[in-house]
Amino acid sequence: MGPIAAAERLRWQREPLTARDVMTRNVRTARRDSSLRDVARLMKEEDSGVIPIVSEHGRLEGTVTDRDLAIQAFSGGQPPEQLRAMDVMTDDIHAVTPDESLHTLVDLMAREQIRRIPVVERDDRLVGIVTLSDIAQRADGDEELQRALERISSRRSFWSRLR
Question: What is the domain partition of the chain in residue ranges?
Fold first, then answer.
């Protein structure tokens, strides 16, 4: 058997990757009553565009993104200093379990045009998050993952659709 055939055989024998295999663990979180300043500080410290919002028991309740901060916090009638995470967070979010296959997860991200997805246990306890960067690091030799990443990243802006 030649080297290419051996490589192909190994490729087909490996187990499919799951959310558990690629997720970022020990994600910093905030609570619903956290100030926006605290959420923004966490984003800066973690160099992250999203902070999951969890209950006192670690159950996922929503997320605050950098976009939420920029748009919702500064377009409303209240001064941003008075706002809490619960005032700007998105609570209708998609999440996956750690055993979800990476291909299923990528399909969900492409279909919903989301670039990050929380990973929760069956009781909704947050255990990690998967981002496009996490997936891109694994997509090197996987053409299907590469195509899926292109679909996720090809989201067209409102303005480009008007042409």
Answer: 16-155
Whole-angstrom Cα distance, residue 126 to residue 95? 9
What confidence tens digit (pLDDT) does each residue in 20-77 have?
Answer: 999 999 999 999 999 999 999 999 999 999 999 999 999 999 999 999 988 877 777 7
CATH architecture of 16-155: Roll (3.10)
Q: What is the pLDDT of residues 98-125, one digit of tens each?
A: 999 988 888 898 888 888 999 999 999 9
Helices (H), 26-161: 36-46, 66-67, 73-75, 85-88, 102-112, 132-136, 143-153, 158-161
What does residue 7 show for φ and ψ, rounded to 5 degrees?
A: -65, -45
